[in-house]
Amino acid sequence: MKNLFLCFLLSTLTWNTWCQSETDIQLAQHYYLNGEFTKALLYYEKLYTNEPSKVYFSRYLDCLVNTGDKKGAEKIFKKQTAANPADLALKIQFYFFYKGNEDLDKAKRIKNEVLKREFYDIKEIQEVLSNLLSIDEYDWAKDIIDQAKKNLKFYPYELWYGQIYMAQGETIKALDQYLMALSKKPELKEQVQLEIEGIFDFTKESEEIQQVKASVLSASQKDPSNPVYTEMLIWFFLQNKNFSAAYNQVSSLEKRMRGDGSYLIDFGNTCLENVQYELAKKAFKEVISLSLYRAAEAQRMLLNVYFTEVTTERVFSPAELTEIIRSYEEVIENKQFSVRVGPEIGLEYAEILGFYANEGIKAKGFLEQAMKSQGLTDIQRARYKMKLADVCVAVDSIWEASLLYMQIDEAFKFEAIGNEAKFKNARIFYFDGEFEFAQSQLDVLKQATSKFISNDAMQLSLLILENYGLDSNYEAMSTYAKSELLLLQHRYSEAFQWMDSIAIKFPQSVLNDDLIYLKGRAFELQGQWAQAAEYFTQVVSTYPTELLADDALFHLATIQRVHSKNDTAAMESYLKLIDQYPGSIYSEEARLSIRRLRGDQIPE
Q1: Would you say 327 and 306 are in contact if contact means Cβ atoms under 8 Å apart?
Q2: What tens digit of pLDDT does each residue of 465-505 get?
Q3: Which residues, including other chains, have CB under 8 Å from residue 514's CB and lie 6 or more apart?
Q4: What's residue 176's pLDDT?
Q5: Which long-range contacts (CB under 8 A, 24 or more apart) does 537-544 make?
Q6: What is the dihedral of CA 171, 173, 179, 180, to 10 degrees?
Q7: CA distance linking residue 423 with residue 389, whole number of Å
Q8: Is the C-alpha dihedral spanning 202, 200, 573, 485 positive or negative?
Q9: CATH 1.25.40.10 location in the chain
Q10: How far apart, in Å, are the Cα atoms of 447 and each of 287, 342, 408, 458?
Q11: Of 391, 385, 381, 388, which is closest to residue 354 (Cα–Cα)?
Q12: End-to-end CA distance of the chain
């Protein structure tokens, strides 16, 4: 019984002590945060005495300094440093305390004590330098680096010098140090590039950017055998949007390194991303002409540039189109080519024939033959069938297309390609004026896992719901649907006649915003970018809350970025899209485009 009572007494005392400690902590924080340092001092002194942790030390010291008790502050500094002799950050803090109180002799003693330290740990050096730079002790930081160099001879300490110059605002000196570091560790290239990006604004042509160019050129000339400096020069030209100068360096580097084509291929891909089609083609053609190891890959990429240029720019001469088709046929007729191992080439070729060269019958023949090829996977065969159906729409064989779409839908009910086929088949019935049946198919697709298919289905469904229901609207909707079909078939004059007839017959039609958007798309499909931009701008400004407003804004931003080369206007449009239409399907692509416009490095 006696032992039980003692246990109870001890547990009660422990509980009371804990409660009292918690109360002290709460009161100390309360007074400290309110700036009542005299009151907080009493509690932090007690807490620090019981537990000399860094947190209590820092708060206790702060209270002593703010209440003017310099001797008390010095006393606990000595106590803390004695208890933690290896803590250099604490000693630097102690130095700063003495310096602030103009006790320079004591400050100097601490400084000399730190300088006597033998440095072997890179993390420790970095911590010391960070602390010194935070109190503007640049010369002392250089002394620390000089001391560390004795034991870390092969470490690129120039990175640390660069930090010091950066802190002093001497950006070009910092750049020169970062470049020097690459001679020891070329693998630091990406880190150095990020540092440089953080220092300089490459979006503006300035004297400082010219100094950057001079520094990179100088480093390259001093060590011409080191490819990292040529790579840095290429990177600089790309940041500065000087793609022609970058190409000259890339071509030279590929030859000097006797490479396999990787430098030129990487550059070509960068050009393609930045809509520099001519230079992209030039880079890939050089790999092919030199018969480098990656020549076959370059050939495939060259065709992709042709395809991207045709489908994006949409303005080309018959001679250019003939040359592009000939390039595809040279690859397709090669014995090493098959539609099984190069399905994208076949699909691109068929699309160019069917939708841009007005050779739909030839495209159909090629696709029908491709589908008979041995060794195709089910999904590859379905993709060729899908392209065949699309071409059938283009040549006005819409019910043949419908049959093909239904076959794909039936075979791939629960996959993205099946959903795409179902949507395209529903659109066939929409084109034919069978709005109720089309709507029933679209209702199923609204739950599709593919965001883009779901969005297309939702938009077409809402178009039907908003504009069809009354008998008087049927004719307007049918005419509108016919206009869309004609645009898919690239029969632009007829499409405009049908669209204009709606405005004449139904001047009060609720389709007005849809018609403006559709006319914008019609001009866009013909590569008439200025006219397209006018119509998209009209949709955004006149109908900002309608269904197609975010679509119009995204198309407008793309025209500004890719075709008008107006990065400022494009940036504003992309930001507006993200701000005003946060739920738009284009938000992710808009953010990616903003990063490209800023020159950010985008992971593959």
Answers
A1: yes
A2: 887 765 557 888 999 999 999 999 999 999 999 999 998 88
A3: 463, 467, 480, 548
A4: 93
A5: 539/513, 542/513, 542/516, 543/513, 543/516, 544/580
A6: -160
A7: 13
A8: positive
A9: 511-598
A10: 46, 33, 18, 9
A11: 391
A12: 74
HSE-CB at 96 with a 13 A cutoff on CA atoms is: 15
Residue 433 region by backbone torsions, left for phi larger than 0, else alpha for psi between -120 and 50, else beta: left
SS3 sequence, 160-190?
HHHHHHHHCCCHHHHHHHHHHHHHHCHHHHH
Q: What is the CB neighbour count within 10 angstroms for residue 210?
A: 11
Nearest alpha carbon to residue 360 among 326, 398, 319, 330: 398
In the chain, count of helices (H) and strands (E)?
A: 32, 0
Q: Give the CATH number of domain 157-240.
A: 1.25.40
Overall residue count recorded for the chain in this entry: 604
Three-class DSSP category at 299: helix
Rounded to an integer, what distance in angstroms lies between the CA atom of residue 538 and that of residue 531? 11
Q: What is the pLDDT of residues 238-272, one digit of tens each?
A: 988 899 999 999 999 999 999 999 999 999 999 99
Q: Which helix (DSSP H) or strand (DSSP E) does residue 245 occupy?
A: helix 243-256
Helices 104-115 and 138-149, packing angle to 10 deg: 20
Which residue has better confidence, 451 or 454? 454
Fold that domain 511-598 belongs to in CATH: 1.25.40
Classify residue 119 by its DSSP letter: P
Greater model confidence, 401 or 460: 401
Report how far Cα 386 is from the mean position of its chain's Cα atoms: 31
Q: Give tens-digit pLDDT for 553-596.
A: 999 999 999 899 899 999 999 999 999 999 898 999 999 999 88
Q: Which of 562, 554, 561 is nearest to 537 (CA)?
A: 554
